[in-house]
Amino acid sequence: MPVADKPGVLHRPAWLKIRLKTGTGFRQTKSVLTHQKLATVCEEARCPNIYECWGRKTATIMILGDTCTRACGFCAVKTGRPANADQAEPFRTAMAVKEMGLKHVVITSVDRDDLKNDFGAEIWARTIEMIHEHVGNCTVEVLTPDFQGHLPALLKIFRAAPEVFSHNVECIERISKIVRPQSDWQRSKFVLKTAKEAGMVTKSGMMVGLGETDDEVLALMKEMADLNVDIFTIGQYLQPTKSHLPVERFVHPDTFRMYKEEGIKSGLKIVESGPLVRSSYHADEQIKLLTKPGN
Predict the structure, then answer these.
(1) What is the architecture, at CATH level 2, of domain 17-290?
(2) Whole-prediction pTM
């Protein structure tokens, strides 16, 4: 296990080292996104898999700007007063997806609690519809905020018919108010439950290393399975800056493998579990597994 230089400060273990590889695929993906003036959670949230995913010409596009109205203790996306919603963004997003030749795309967004009418759901729905219209062979996965549990906003997303609906619980309920004080764990459960009742393929995820126990992780997965969540992701929390929540522990890869095994036993169809796993990691492969005959 990693050794602390001083209390509360841990060395990052060898299994969390990231390979920096900026090949042709990475450069082409960056060029398209820059040309279309689109933000990505890959960059804004400092995702450790950006080199692998962009190298495979996959990306998680972040709509509704790059400024969030919430200030979660784990997240590197900047917070503040966002700019007005860009009405041309759905079309530009579709054009980027088409130019990159994607077969599966993940769309996410900042929280837009300032947009009181629908919290940005209309832009969300139009983005999904534009991709389906202009890139007919591309499946769409959405990783949404909670829209403050506003049912009309959620229904707009469901009617746009994304192939996968994802919303992260992020952590166990016991520490949720510390990790994301402006969100609500039960509200996140409501979002996932409502999506499943609407016929969506559902997905959620969490980070470990924020103060949870292994037993609490297993209990959370059982709770997700009881909500009929199809896909669940678990990854190691990494502190983006010194002003964010500290890492409480680094979880060994063997423990991540145990999480996966127990999650499948609990009834989840797919569990993506590993130190560097993030919400959208291997999302294109997950949709293929779920659409195989017999699943």
Answers:
(1) Alpha-Beta Barrel (3.20)
(2) 0.87
